[in-house]
Description:
Layout: H1 3-7, H2 10-19, H3 24-44, H4 55-76, H5 89-92, H6 100-114, H7 118-128, H8 133-140, H9 144-167
Helix pairs in contact: 2-3, 2-4, 3-4, 6-9, 7-9, 8-9
Amino acid sequence: MDVTAILDHAPFIRSTLRARGVLPADLDDLTQDTLLGAWRSLRAGRFRPSPALPPADALRRWLAGIASRQASHYRDKAHRRHELPAVDPDRLSAFAAPSPAARLVARGPLRAFHRLRPELREILSLAATGLSSREIAASLSLPRPTVATRLRLARRLFARALTRSRRSPRCAR
């Protein structure tokens, strides 16, 4: 496999990074870092596709895992840059509630979700999109038992936070 196969996936990498919360101002740099990291890994022989998958699908999953890790590192470094990750309003418009009452109802689950550790939030959000634990493990380059454990923990902590918020309602902030 050569570098052109990786470069052909640049739009996919860019959209993966954007979906993982990378700011538009940093998107080009992080896309370039991801492409460079993938190329170095490819030359080092770290791309070992599954024989069960077509090569294009295996490459796409591998690049999604690299992009996810790059976005995770980017979010972890935000506190050192003294930045707060901005939310793209266009992405949120699809989730906008039709009434203020519905927004108030959604505020509790969103708070509970954002209180989870970042790695649990990521696995829970990938599971919510319909990916199986095997697909999540492949995209994040984690062992399947680790994904299953983190998913189970995330669901339990999220459910506990939701029941706690229902028992003791607070005033809206």
